[in-house]
Amino acid sequence: MNLFYQPEIPRGANFLSPEESRHAVKVLRMKNLDTIDITDGQGSFYHAQITEANAAKCEFEILNTKSVARRPFEISIAVAPTKNIDRTEWFLEKAVEIGVERIYFMDCQNSERHHINQDRLMKIVISAMKQSVQAWIPEITELIPFKEVLKKKAQQKFICHATNEHPNMLHTAAQKNSHYLVLIGPEGDFSPEEIKDAQVNNFEIVSLGPNRLRTETAALTACQILNFINL
Amino acid sequence: MNLFYQPEIPRGANFLSPEESRHAVKVLRMKNLDTIDITDGQGSFYHAQITEANAAKCEFEILNTKSVARRPFEISIAVAPTKNIDRTEWFLEKAVEIGVERIYFMDCQNSERHHINQDRLMKIVISAMKQSVQAWIPEITELIPFKEVLKKKAQQKFICHATNEHPNMLHTAAQKNSHYLVLIGPEGDFSPEEIKDAQVNNFEIVSLGPNRLRTETAALTACQILNFINL
């Protein structure tokens, strides 16, 4: 199944973007009267028929609409982008596939990267949403300071940090059907000040499991655990 | 912490491989009397002191040894390598980080890749084992036919396959402290014959969750779920 993305359908758009039009008409060789599936990324799937198979502006008529409810829980992950951006891009693709509502890119004291290309990252999000056939597009942010992330609202707030004595595990600390915000530090870990600052702001220190994980593996594992406890 | 790998310690080796020697002496600039940590990948960590900081053959003396027991469960994942091998390599790195005992590379009817470079994949396994500070090295195989994988022994055998009606979920079907074998199909999915063949061989059809996942995401998610139920 090829799913197309057109966020403007709720505002009356009946055509695909130039990029999506090209994909439908040039790559997939779709023609007038062929049917396609589209999402607006805002909770709806549309089954539609192509009325004008134009490779620059492929027009369609909606045959029927299916609404998908928001999940009863909400996962927000705040992560420091990795020095090698490929690792962050992998995390992003996988997190979207398995399910995530929001990703905050976070600038920490020990961050090794202070710049991200949000347009490029958004393309990865869109592609993964289409690939995994989802109707809600996750939100991603520009790089924002650690202190600003601390002000974000959530019902359960966690900061991942390895402590040796009796770790508090994310999968037992997190409750079902909640809105979670989990902070994942950079390669050099959070600074002691950041940990303290998070605690003052009611973030609970948690561990993800017994192994030492890379930043992007930790971020994905947090996402997997929160999806898992809600299965 | 930099962990080195020397599988020959149980057979008396008191030196690092040329590659590891170069890393210790040239890159990390370690000198005589510096201490290092080594694993043999067979359940032991060694704390050792460098006696000859030679960049081609770095010799050491073991100060103390710590044994790590095998986990009380065992995860074997059989996966069809992806067309784009980067995706398989990424899965391999992440699976080793979070914990896996064995990966069978499997040749299926719809496989898009019929060749793997086992040496290259083994390097990824070693690097991820060291990175995540583990004392047991996971096993990986050459590419083996689907029918041979069906003969592999395990206490609980699963094949991941999307079915719409009331899916049997891996996280409820799998019991704690068992030896699991999970089959993950290629991009074009298993053929109907393969599914039937697996069922005849007592593999249970399972689903990993609500979303459609890429091959490598499904393989990693299976691994995460099995680690998770044993936390």
Account of the 3D structure:
The structure is a homodimer of 231-residue chains. With 231 residues, chain A is α/β, with parallel strands linked by helices. Chain A has 2 domains: 65 residues, Beta Barrel (Ribosomal Protein L25, Chain P); 156 residues, SPOUT methyltransferase, trefoil knot domain (Alpha/beta knot), CATH 3.40.1280.10. In chain A, 30% of the residues lie in helices and 26% in strands. In chain A, the strands form 2 sheets. Chain A has a 6-stranded parallel beta sheet with strand order 7-6-5-9-8-10, with helices on both faces. In chain A, strands 1-2-3-4 form a 4-stranded mixed beta sheet. In chain A, a hairpin with a 6-residue loop joins strand 3 and strand 4. The model of chain A has no long low-confidence stretch (mean pLDDT 95). Chains A and B meet through helix 2 and helix 7 of A and helix 2 and helix 7 of B.
**What fraction of the residues of chain A are assigned to beta strands by DSSP?**
25-35%
Of all chain pairs, the largest interface belongs to: A-B, 25 and 25 residues
Oligomer: homodimer
What's the total count of β strands of chain A? 10
